[in-house]
Write a structure and sequence with these properties.
Elements (H helix, E strand, L loop, with lengths): L8 H50 L14 E7 L5 E7 L12 E6 L5 E9 L5 E2 L7 E6 L7 E4 L5 E9 L5 E7 L4 E4 L1
Antiparallel strand pairs: 1-2, 1-6, 2-3, 4-5, 4-8, 6-7, 8-9, 9-10
Length: 189
Amino acid sequence: RLSTAGFSLVELMVTISIFVVITGVVLAKNSSFNSSIKLTNLVYEVALKIREAQTYGVSVREFGVGTSRFEIGYGVYFDKSLPAGFVFFADENKNRSYDGSNELVDSLSMLGGNEIKRFCVTPISGPVLCSNDGSINFLTIIFERPKPEAIILSNIGGAYQKAQVVVGSVDGQERFVEIDATGQISVVQ
């Protein structure tokens, strides 16, 4: 009598095929999951840098060691020609704009194909203006003592009630940071 215990060759091939398919699905989803987590972390990092500018601008923060300059506003600057990063700056000359490296406090560079896809401003009256449609070229958000409100500026001027920064990944996922003129900063997923 022959023993019938064990796998036949066909059963073994079917089992291996099922294992390969399941492994492929798990690995594909893992890559997408990792990309989503990295993008979420990045958008929170952008929001935290804006919150840091607000904290510096509202608090008594000296610009430069031993300068006794506490009246300076702090802000963030986004430029559509620099989609892979943005600048955190001190408005040393109080002109409410980023004037170059002498005002630089920190900069954030995005890696792995993530970038600022667009930034938009919502005027008090009128349509939303965005960088991806050519309406605006830069966005500056400044906070000045003693008010926690955001001063939202772009290259076309005007008064804005809200700004939005959209961070995107290579695979098309997007996350948003919204900055309200009242000073509220939130992340939308």
